[in-house]
Amino acid sequence: MGLTRVDVEPELPLVAQLAAPIQGPVVSTNRYHVVAGDEDAFVAAWRAEVSYLSRQPGYLGAELYRGIGGSKVFFNLASWQSAASLMAAGDSDRFRALIAAFPPSRCYPHLVQPIALDGDQAGR
């Protein structure tokens, strides 16, 4: 069981993104492909993970989305004060156990930062 991570950009894996000199808040994006019939178990595992992460320093919030029309694709967006706070939260046996508790699914993680906001100018 658990998540199988597949890097969105093989030439820039998540571990390299986390090691990059990053300033300011970051958003951890994850696209999941869930096996048919495991959707409820997946959402329950996600809720357990978020319950843990929400108590970690630097956590700002997360949202889970599902594709429309019975899609087996889910998207998670989790906001953090910094890449360092995200790394610290993920570097624990408890977090690894929570990831292992997910039903078998493929996960495509990527770290992003906002560059433009509706009605605002980012990068000022």
TrEMBL record:
The keyword Oxidoreductase applies. Gene3D superfamilies: 3.30.70.100. Residues 26-100 form the ABM domain. Keywords: Monooxygenase, Oxidoreductase. GO terms for molecular function: monooxygenase activity. The keyword Membrane does not apply. Coiled coil: none annotated. It comes from the Bacteria. Pfam families: ABM (PF03992). This is Heme-degrading monooxygenase HmoA. It comes from Kribbella kalugense.
